[in-house]
């Protein structure tokens, strides 16, 4: 906190000085003995030859001998080369998970199932404790289905523990799922995902509006470039928060849905969006998320929201106020812009690029974009200034140009 | 749509730093200066708030689309992967985002000024040389120093990195050239040329060869056999990105050669003070910097021709790089980095382009205007022109013939009255409506440096070498006198009805309130910079080219940076007129509610 107060802009500085000020400095000053865990390093967007995080660690690691790092990630080339860096290689111990004996993993997963299901049994009032649940044979089937994938185990447990149906019923449901023949592990997760979605979808079975909402909401959660809260999503998509929450309530085994409507919704595991957006893996048309359609829908929602909310002097500032003078900038942002409008202003052109040039939406999109430029361009720039994202504006123009270039090529071909 | 994205991008970039400070500048400062052909001007003129440009608004966006100001001037500039690296005085290297021009990172490590820097061809590393006698290799991604090369005993002048990123070459004012092995971190070859070395490059075709400039000659050093031989005359040399061509400048002569040393193209630029040159990424263009100007030549046809001339830097250009096939970045001693747009017509040059010569603008000695009635005056070699500045009549100026006399300064007294001072010791006052001469008088003084009239027309100021004298315009009676013995080079900055601001060589602006009774003026050397009061609440700050709210100090209007500091500014209660070194002139109308 002291560092942040002393250097409020540290987040914009180079990685090196961030590392020095935020991590190495305080650790050196206090001499803390600790373990720092960095999970899923491969999910850091990073195209350079060796991972930035590892390169930077290599520069500082000898200054903080009391600190150990536990780093996990798929063995992507930049991560492997990162660990080969001069100062890291001798002090790194590599544990190759893909070489760990399957039995050891199965044992862990079995233990996980046992303890988690036992705790469900203990905490649920609708449960007869005398019953031997889960049975050893049930656990065995579960472990077989998980086939070494922890994401299967954790999703299954969340699904079983849902308070919509009795856990016994849900467990039987999973057990009874047919076994898949191809690529046991992955399709096992796929089967489970389908089952979870079936259950969630069951609620909207006879309600076509609910079904559309379900699709729109799940599509948006999967495709947004920055996680949005329930409030943000409902403003963007034009639903009320109650409806939105009930729509995704039964997906809690796949999504982290916070209690507060203002905290962002996260996806537990990347395999869920991968599954829903891959037409080969998700063959059920009801659940398949076609990114081209949803990007168009989100883009139009962004443009509608901007159309509705953007205006001159959106913060109601005094004449000629200077940004550095405004003390309660973040309160103003919350009150007058909000997550949804900030998101729309920052990312709408990214959704534009997700729409193929031959999309049936192309014409409607062009019309809306044209109107945006004629009416709200300056107000949009104003929001970018107020949210300190002005650079985004320049990139956005490049995005739009790129998309229109593609569209005009298609029109020429026609 | 490309018109919209183009206009919006230019709007964002040109005013980026100004509107970053306050959203109001979108409407107050940026929008009024959107060129008449832009759609921002077409669709958003209703959003204009207080400032309206009634004269001088360009029809098209300028060639310079972004100006970034630095704390100190830079000698070195390098571009790779949309990043610009700039060396700076306290020893920092600043990395800018080349798309937005905003600062992305600061690499600190050098303890003295950074004189030279260059990105590796893959963009992951940066090599820099400094007055602290060291050469450093940086990891661009993390901003950390990978290695420091120590050995030179004096300032580093130039550095280069081999295409395979295994070697670094450096030259220092200790008169040695060092070739460093990056892996080992030590110097593997040194060489001491006879005269000082200014610039060094790895030969793109042979990594054993170093090409350097010493004593206005291009030399080649074969490090494997340790042979050094002079090639030809040159002040600067650089290579195309594919390594097949080199371009060198020597005086006004620019020479493009292939890898065998055969001359492909040779041409002359208009200025013989050439400093540096570079190829565009596609090798079709060569840009040359000489003094404050950049010349861009197309070299693809058999007949090389000038495409663009970029004028805008206030001082000598120190470094030049292309950031795309159609944009160029230059750094200058004026502490700025400018981004330039190369003409779109480049693809198919016409005959007219081939024969085009720079247009010389008429010399405007002064521009001023007064009058709520909307009369403007401007003067050039032909005489004095007056006209109605309401937009439709903007060009319909009536002329007051002043051809026979060389006039020194002119001033509008009221919507009707025009004041002209002729350097042959006469003044005249004209009725502009009738075109009639009202008063003509000899000046009762000799060696007059400058003569001006006060805003209300009642007083005339006469500035001489050691004194300033004030008269009543119509009676000719003296109204005040101040002496400034011991001060030289008086320059009149501004005046209002009761005060006058001046500056002398090496002094702060100097204020004299001649409304104060008493025999001697009050002089002050610590007066705030030159300024002009616009009504009761606002003032024009001529050094920073902006209008400030007096009570809050807030900047309410910022003049686009491309204009630079006005050489003359006048105000009449509604219109603010300014003229610039570049011969441009602007008239701004300020809305009454604003003041």
What's the topology here?
The complex is a heterodimer of chains A (414) and B (595).
Chain A (H helix, E strand, L loop, with lengths): L1 H5 L8 H16 L3 E5 L13 H9 L6 E5 L5 H7 L18 H22 L12 H11 L3 H11 L6 H10 L7 H19 L5 H16 L6 H8 L3 H8 L6 E2 L9 E2 L3 H6 L14 H19 L19 H25 L8 H14 L1 H10 L3 H24 L1
Parallel strand pairs in A: 1-2
Antiparallel strand pairs in A: 3-4
Helix pairs in contact in A: 2-3, 5-6, 5-7, 6-7, 7-9, 10-14, 11-15, 14-15, 14-16, 15-17, 15-18, 17-18
Chain B lengths: L1 H13 L1 H6 L2 H7 L8 H6 L6 E5 L8 E6 L7 E4 L2 E5 L5 E5 L5 E5 L6 E6 L5 E6 L4 E5 L4 E6 L6 E6 L5 E6 L4 E5 L4 E6 L5 E6 L6 E6 L2 E6 L4 E7 L2 E4 L5 E6 L2 E6 L4 E6 L5 E6 L5 E6 L2 E6 L6 E7 L5 E8 L2 E6 L3 E6 L9 H5 L10 E4 L5 E6 L2 E6 L8 E5 L5 E6 L4 E6 L3 E6 L4 E7 L5 E6 L5 E6 L2 E6 L5 E6 L7 E5 L3 E5 L6 E4 L17 E4 L3 E4 L4 E4 L5 E4 L7 E6 L3 E6 L4 E6 L5
Antiparallel strand pairs in B: 1-51, 2-29, 3-4, 4-5, 5-6, 7-8, 8-9, 9-10, 11-12, 12-13, 13-14, 15-16, 16-17, 17-18, 19-20, 20-21, 21-22, 23-24, 24-25, 25-26, 27-28, 28-29, 30-31, 31-32, 32-33, 34-35, 35-36, 36-37, 38-39, 39-40, 40-41, 42-43, 43-44, 45-46, 46-47, 47-48, 49-50, 50-51
Supply the key terms.
heterodimer, A: 414 residues, mainly alpha, two-stranded parallel sheet, two-stranded antiparallel sheet, 3% strand, B: 595 residues, mainly beta, Methylamine Dehydrogenase, Chain H, 3 domains, four-stranded antiparallel β-sheet, 5 helices, 51 strands, elongated
């Amino acid at each position: 906190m002291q560092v942040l107060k002393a250097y409020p802009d540290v987040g914009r500085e180079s990685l090196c000085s961030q590392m020095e000020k935020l991590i190495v400095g305080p650790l050196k000053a206090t001499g803390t003995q600790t373990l720092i865990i960095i999970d899923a390093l491969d999910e850091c967007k990073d195209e350079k030859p060796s991972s930035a995080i590892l390169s930077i660690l290599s520069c500082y690691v000898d200054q903080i001998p009391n600190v150990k790092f536990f780093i996990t990630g798929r063995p992507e080339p930049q991560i492997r080369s990162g660990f080969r860096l001069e100062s890291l290689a001798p002090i790194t111990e590599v544990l190759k998970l893909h070489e760990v004996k399957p039995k050891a993993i199965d044992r862990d997963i079995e233990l996980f199932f046992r303890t988690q299901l036992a705790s469900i049994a203990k905490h649920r009032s609708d449960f007869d404790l005398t019953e031997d649940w889960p049975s050893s044979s049930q656990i065995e089937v579960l472990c077989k289905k998980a086939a070494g994938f922890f994401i299967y185990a954790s999703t299954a447990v969340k699904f079983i523990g849902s308070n919509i149906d009795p856990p016994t019923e849900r467990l039987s449901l999973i057990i009874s799922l047919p076994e898949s023949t191809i690529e046991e592990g992955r399709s096992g997760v796929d089967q489970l995902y389908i089952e979870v979605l079936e259950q969630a979808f069951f609620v909207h079975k006879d309600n076509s509006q609910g079904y559309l909402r379900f699709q729109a909401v799940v599509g948006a959660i999967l495709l947004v470039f920055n996680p949005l809260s329930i409030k943000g999503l409902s403003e963007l998509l034009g639903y009320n928060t109650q409806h939105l929450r009930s729509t995704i309530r039964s997906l809690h085994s796949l999504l982290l849905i916070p209690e507060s409507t203002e905290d962002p919704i996260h996806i537990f595991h990347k395999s869920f969006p991968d599954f829903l957006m891959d037409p080969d893996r998700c063959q059920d048309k009801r659940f398949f998320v076609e990114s081209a359609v949803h990007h168009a829908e989100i883009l139009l929602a962004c443009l509608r929201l901007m159309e509705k909310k953007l205006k001159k002097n959106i913060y109601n500032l005094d004449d000629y106020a200077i940004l550095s003078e405004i003390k309660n900038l973040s309160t103003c942002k919350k009150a007058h812009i909000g997550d949804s409008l900030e998101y729309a202003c920052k990312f709408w052109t990214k959704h534009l690029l997700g729409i193929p040039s031959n999309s049936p939406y192309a014409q409607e999109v062009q019309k809306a974009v044209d109107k945006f430029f004629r009416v709200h361009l300056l107000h949009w720039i104003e929001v970018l200034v107020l949210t300190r994202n002005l650079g985004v504006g320049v990139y956005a123009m490049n995005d739009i140009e790129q998309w229109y270039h593609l569209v005009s090529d298609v029109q020429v071909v026609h | 749509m490309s018109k919209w994205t183009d206009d919006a991008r230019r709007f964002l970039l040109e005013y980026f730093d100004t509107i970053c400070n306050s959203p109001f500048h979108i409407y107050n400062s940026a929008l009024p200066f959107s060129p008449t052909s832009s759609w921002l001007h077409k669709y958003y003129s209703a959003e204009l708030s207080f400032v309206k440009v009634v004269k001088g608004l360009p029809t098209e966006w300028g060639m310079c689309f972004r100006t970034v100001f630095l704390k100190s001037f830079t000698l070195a500039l390098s571009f790779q992967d949309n990043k610009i690296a700039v060396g700076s005085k306290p020893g920092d290297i600043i990395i800018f985002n080349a798309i937005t021009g905003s600062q992305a990172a600061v690499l600190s490590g050098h303890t003295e000024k950074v004189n030279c820097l260059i990105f590796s061809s893959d963009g992951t590393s940066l090599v820099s040389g400094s007055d602290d006698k060291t050469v450093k290799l940086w990891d661009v991604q993390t901003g950390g120093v990978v290695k420091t090369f120590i050995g030179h005993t004096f300032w580093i002048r130039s550095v280069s990195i081999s295409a395979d990123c295994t070697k670094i070459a450096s030259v220092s004012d200790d008169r040695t050239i060092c070739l460093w092995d990056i892996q080992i971190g030590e110097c593997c070859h040194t060489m001491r040329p006879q005269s000082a070395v200014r610039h060094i490059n790895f030969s793109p075709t042979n990594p054993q060869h170093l090409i350097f400039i010493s004593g206005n000659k291009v030399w080649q050093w074969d490090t494997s056999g340790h042979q050094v031989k002079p090639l030809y005359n040159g002040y600067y040399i650089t290579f195309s990105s594919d390594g097949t061509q080199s371009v060198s400048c020597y005086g006004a002569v620019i020479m493009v050669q292939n890898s065998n040393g055969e001359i492909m193209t040779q041409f002359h630029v208009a200025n013989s003070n050439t400093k540096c040159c570079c190829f565009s990424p596609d090798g079709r263009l060569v840009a040359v910097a000489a003094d404050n100007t950049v010349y861009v030549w197309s070299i693809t046809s058999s007949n090389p021709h000038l495409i663009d001339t970029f004028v805008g830097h206030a001082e000598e250009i120190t470094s030049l790089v292309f950031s795309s096939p159609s944009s160029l970045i230059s750094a200058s001693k004026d502490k700025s980095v400018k981004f330039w747009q190369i003409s779109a017509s480049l693809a198919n040059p016409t005959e007219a382009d081939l024969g085009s010569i720079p247009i010389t603008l008429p010399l405007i000695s002064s521009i001023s205007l007064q009058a709520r009635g909307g009369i403007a005056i401007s003067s050039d070699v032909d005489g004095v022109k007056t006209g109605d500045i309401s937009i439709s009549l903007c060009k319909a100026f009536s002329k007051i013939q002043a051809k026979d006399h060389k006039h020194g300064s002119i001033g509008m007294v009221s919507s009707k009255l025009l004041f002209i001072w002729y350097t042959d010791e006469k003044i005249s006052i004209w009725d502009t409506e009738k075109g009639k001469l009202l008063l003509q008088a000899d000046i009762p003084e000799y060696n007059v440096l400058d003569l001006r009239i006060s805003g209300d027309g009642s007083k005339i100021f006469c500035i001489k070498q050691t004194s300033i004298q004030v008269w009543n315009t119509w009676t000719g009676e003296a109204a005040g006198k101040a002496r400034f013995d011991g001060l030289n080079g008086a320059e009149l900055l501004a005046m209002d009805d009761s005060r006058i601001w001046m500056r002398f060589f090496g002094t702060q602006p100097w204020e004299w309130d001649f409304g104060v009774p008493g025999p001697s003026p009050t002089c002050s050397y610590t007066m705030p910079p030159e300024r002009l009061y616009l009504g009761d609440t606002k003032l024009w700050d001529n050094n920073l080219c902006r209008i400030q709210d007096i009570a809050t100090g807030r900047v309410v209007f910022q003049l686009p940076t491309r204009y630079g500091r006005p050489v003359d500014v006048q105000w009449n209660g509604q219109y603010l007129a300014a003229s610039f070194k570049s011969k441009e002139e602007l008239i701004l109308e300020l809305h009454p509610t604003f003041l």
